[in-house]
Amino acid sequence: MFAWLVPAQAADSGLAAGDLDASISACEDFNQYANGGWLARNPVPPAYSSWGTFNEIEDRNNERLLRIAREAAAQRDAAEGSPEWLVGRMFRSATDAGQLEALRFAPIQAELDAIAAIDTRADLLEMLRRLHADGLPLLFNLVAQPDLKDPDRVIAYAFQGGLGLPNQDFYLRRDLDSRRQLDAYREHIARMLALAGSGIRRANTDAARIVELETRLARAHLSREELRNPARSYRLLSVAAANAATPGFDWRAHLDAVGLVQVREFSLSHSAYLATMSEALSEVPLATWRSYLRWQLLRQSAPFLHEAILDENFRFYGATLRGQQRLRPREIRAIEQLNYRLGEPLGRLFVDRHFRPEAKTRMLALVERLRAAMRQRLGQLPWLGERSREEALRKLAGFRTKIGYPDRWRDYSGLRLEPDALLANVRAIERFRQAQEYARVGQPVDRGEWYVAPQQVNAYYNP
Question: What global pTM score does this model have?
């Protein structure tokens, strides 16, 4: 990205001369010539792993969102279910550090106890169903997306998952830096387990077994390159055929437990991985599975718990993996969580203040003029054959304009949040989002909705 493309203050030309480095020839090093001045004035801040003009824009936007969230949090009489009520409650629960310290592991203690009580393979599968129903996609992701071969309907997809590191390369590369990183991950797991009450020796033993299990799962993953091929993420099967492909894993029971009772067929997308997962569920000792589930629960809950577990989570995922030197302030992290989990209620408050309806009207009119110009041009291009011209005009007619904010805001009336229970609120939002997503399965595709492309699900659900 060229810093001068989005300058904070630029001349009429759109270029900021101060962002250039005239001491070097553009023919010798164009990046330094174009960006050298900006780079010299903008070292990477300690709380970031990289820095660019889009980060500047994001920071300025976060300041606006922060003012909105603070005002919403101060409104104690906001109507239940309103954007102010949702944003205010979530923001208060995310910024109450004292409450988080007082609760410590209480928000996940019932789940930790249930994991510790797993005594049979049936208990293990039941625990997986329980966690998935609660919005925790352990071992695999189950999502609703348009059918890749019938884009007018929505189906369910089962995708690979189960890893605590970003992708399979982190487990399988054998160079020295990669081995050190995997060692650091193993040590991090041990520290997290110790913080949750395991003795040091037990924590180290369990961490080694967890990494061994995740490595087994990683070997069956599609690579990042393979995930870019949509055909590798599609295999439509009946539920009975999916059960046959993954012996020992009952898809009917799982689908029913998470609210997909209407599903009769779905995409067993990453079938090699899911078969390996099924084998591991039957073969790996239950003690290892208890440790693994305990670790994954801690990992996914850590950002919403007390300072000690939050800091250890940041020490590995923020500092070791991403190179950040410092955790961002709590209020900024709260805004990022709000944007990620309650983007529409927060967006409605933002739009009311910063994006007037007449601005959207002007932009829609501009887009329509562009569409009319393109329609006229396509109708006159001499090198287009008639069939190609018809197809191009058909595609242009299908173009959907989305400017600023949706024409129909999502209904959050069924979502209940507490004023002082961050993790409970995160789980409530995930259950609500998941229920809305799963309700789409079997329905026509809503062109006004946003969907994650199947090949991008791993990146989206496992940031």
Answer: 0.87
